[in-house]
Design brief:
Blueprint: E1 2-7, H1 11-16, H2 19-24, E2 30-34, H3 45-48, E3 55-59, E4 70-74, E5 80-82, E6 96-101, E7 104-110, H4 118-140, E8 144-150, H5 174-185, E9 188-190, H6 191-195, E10 205-206, H7 212-215, E11 218-219, E12 222-227, E13 234-239, E14 251-255
Parallel strand pairs: 1-2, 7-8
Antiparallel strand pairs: 1-14, 2-4, 3-4, 5-6, 6-7, 8-12, 9-12, 10-11, 13-14
Length: about 260
Amino acid sequence: MKILSWNVNGLRAIERKGNWEDLLNLDVDVICLQETKARLDQLSKRVAEPEAYPYRYFSHPNEKKGYSGVAIYSKIKPDEVNEGPPKLAKDAEGRVLAAHFGNIVLLNVYFPNGGGGEERLEYKLKFYDLFLEEINKLKKSGKSIIFCGDVNTAHQEIDLARPKENEKNTGFLPIEREWIDEVVNSGYVDVFRNLNPDKKGIYTYWDMKTRARDRNVGWRIDYFFTSLDLMKKIKKFETLSNFYGSDHCPITLELEK
């Protein structure tokens, strides 16, 4: 099974820019998109119902239009899909979809950004803690876990181009990075870093206003994490740095069947 994760920064925008067909041509089994910024009734038929992906699932904010949102497109029929584990389903910002494939639970997550003041940072940290609590419950019940998406935090200095300049900025605050430490200590593996422990200069997000992508002044804030038991099944991980259409690039994870 090959899974793709991508923060599209607007699903309608990537269609408008001509990147939707490029995405479908990547030919993966499951597509997990974040920051879709659209309700289902706002999407064209070719985006809402692509023939190549007969199983499609969407979550969006209950009230705020053009904000947040996640989507899963799959060639494989999931046993079940819901808006996250029970407590996270109460979140009103459309940030989680959980798809069950046999014993594997795949969670597609758009984690909150901590910018915009103390209230949003507090919301982000609470979301982090609740998410970890919920996936630990799933793991304890015997499920294998994959979670992917825009975590909105770079874990280590190696994960962004300018760590010193960003020590006091959200996305690289010690308290945010400590949560990723906790994720790892709870038995989840950052697949890219596990396979590439010392690799530098690989990022998934670049600021568009400063044309940072042209200079590769970026952040690695998009991840695939898996529970330890799945590491033996991993065939390949890729960062599609040359795939355009958003301020993020896609990442892919391939598992043995």
